[in-house]
């Protein structure tokens, strides 16, 4: 597949001038382009409950190993849940269900949704479960909530996600685990001494958490590097897009647009109130970094990749009638969504390219109908590869079985307040950030439809359509 793309996409690569336009536009823009209020059709369906996003919050996203370093995942999740309750003044007992996502699971709190909910003061009568779907785990949590509300099972569901990369589980080696389990079953002192006598230094070597795809044994960064090469995405393209993300995030932060953040008090330390990974650099500084994965000729570096992040998010999802009856003004309708899966070897990060045409067709919309786009930025090369694939008739016809390309989002509507490259990417918390951010952008910019898309490990992907609620 990769070799096919290398040979066949030479007629439609992203050239560096386009990426340069991204950075130049970001650096020169004094205000985001305001979408004109439109009178498009609504995606409301007769006989189907309208499901709404009432509110969405998140803790500040911090680089792993910084201020949150001594906490646990459930601490951050509890903080997001408490922040949601404080902001909405929603009665805890009125929450029918809680769904949370996480990827790197803490073994002591295997159902982190339940532990965080109890810690946040929710009723012990409120059911809670945890889901995992790599980087789209909180997307899965939200769509689970949508299903519960749309079906009439629930009126109000809290969904969210948390990731804590400052402290990940590290196991003993398998040989050591087997010996320890045998020791636990041994009945006599002799049996125990015999087992201890078999101990070797090699048994003490720990097993670090997997940072590669289980099915391919390849790190995601390697996949991103190969994908960028296949689509003709240069190092310059990637660095300029990453710079764009940081510049726009800093601008949004300075202008007070990141209103989904709730303060978080770290015990024994100051209150944290903003993301700490937003750091606009210069092209000169970024160009000095060495390849992080494929050495020495790779193009993916620490500067054009998302960084390890700690953080949690939470959203309140309700039926429209219940929200209005309780006096709330919903932010947005959560309309349609799709999940997709591809080959995890050569198409690991192309989820948005496959998901977006499907969700648009299901809703009878085109790309031109979308006023605000929020894509997950795992790697700059991944984003640019998806944009190139979406603009390629060849890829649509030969890889997707479609007659023609769907087209790429216009950059004046794309990730205008920064993205995962700059804001941070706590794996399971990013989905809620994307949906909340697109809802806020629709209100700020006067748009009607927003589109969220993300790739995920395992070759999976997600896309969701969000519609602004009448003001």
Automatic annotation (TrEMBL):
GO terms for biological process: fatty acid beta-oxidation. It is an enzyme of class 2 (transferase). One of its GO terms (molecular function) is acetyl-CoA C-acyltransferase activity. Pathway: Lipid metabolism; fatty acid beta-oxidation. Its EC number is 2.3.1.155, 2.3.1.16. It is found in: Endoplasmic reticulum; Mitochondrion inner membrane; Mitochondrion outer membrane. CDD domains: thiolase (cd00751). The keyword tRNA-binding does not apply. Residues 328-467 form the Thiolase C-terminal domain. The keyword GTP-binding does not apply. Residues 51-321 form the Thiolase N-terminal domain. It comes from the Eukaryota. Keywords: Acetylation, Acyltransferase, Endoplasmic reticulum, Fatty acid metabolism, Lipid metabolism, Membrane, Mitochondrion, Mitochondrion inner membrane, Mitochondrion outer membrane, Transferase, Transit peptide. One of its GO terms (cellular component) is mitochondrial outer membrane. It catalyses: butanoyl-CoA + acetyl-CoA = 3-oxohexanoyl-CoA + CoA; decanoyl-CoA + acetyl-CoA = 3-oxododecanoyl-CoA + CoA; hexanoyl-CoA + acetyl-CoA = 3-oxooctanoyl-CoA + CoA; an acyl-CoA + acetyl-CoA = a 3-oxoacyl-CoA + CoA. InterPro entries: Thiolase (IPR002155), Thiolase-like (IPR016039), Thiolase_acyl_enz_int_AS (IPR020615), Thiolase_AS (IPR020610), Thiolase_C (IPR020617), Thiolase_CS (IPR020613), Thiolase_N (IPR020616). Belongs to the thiolase-like superfamily. Thiolase family. Mitochondrial trifunctional enzyme catalyzes the last three of the four reactions of the mitochondrial beta-oxidation pathway. The mitochondrial beta-oxidation pathway is the major energy-producing process in tissues and is performed through four consecutive reactions breaking down fatty acids into acetyl-CoA. Among the enzymes involved in this pathway, the trifunctional enzyme exhibits specificity for long-chain fatty acids. Heterotetramer of 2 alpha/HADHA and 2 beta/HADHB subunits; forms the mitochondrial trifunctional enzyme. Also purified as higher order heterooligomers including a 4 alpha/HADHA and 4 beta/HADHB heterooligomer which physiological significance remains unclear. The mitochondrial trifunctional enzyme interacts with MTLN. Interacts with RSAD2/viperin. This is Trifunctional enzyme subunit beta, mitochondrial. It comes from Pygocentrus nattereri (Red-bellied piranha).
